[in-house]
Amino acid sequence: MTDLEKLKHLLEHWMEHNEAHVMTYSEWALKVDALGENEIAGILRQIVDESRKLNDLFKKAKGIL
Q: Which of 21, 56, 59, 61 is the most exposed place for a label (fewest CB within 10 A)?
């Protein structure tokens, strides 16, 4: 396997791993929102948004390969 093939595989793995984190962050945003911790919930939602942007960058890199 060449380094570029390995990188393509890693990008896919990182996207999947990152998406799993997005789901966890979203779940916790809902939980803390229900507890009245709106500021923390908002921060977690920002983290979700930024993590999704990372996945867009992973996809872009993979597309270039």
A: 56
Q: What distance lies between CA 18 and its chain's CA centroid?
A: 4
Rg (CA), the chain: 15
Return the closest-CA partner of residue 55 out of 27, 18, 20.
Answer: 18
Pick from 55, 60, 58, 63: which is nearest to 20 by CA? 55
Nearest to 40 by CA among 30, 54, 50, 53: 30
pLDDT in tens, 26-60: 999 999 999 999 999 999 999 999 999 999 999 99
Closest CA to 19 of 41, 48, 62, 60: 48
**For the chain, which residues make up each domain, given as ranges?**
6-64
Write out the two tokens for 16: 């999947």
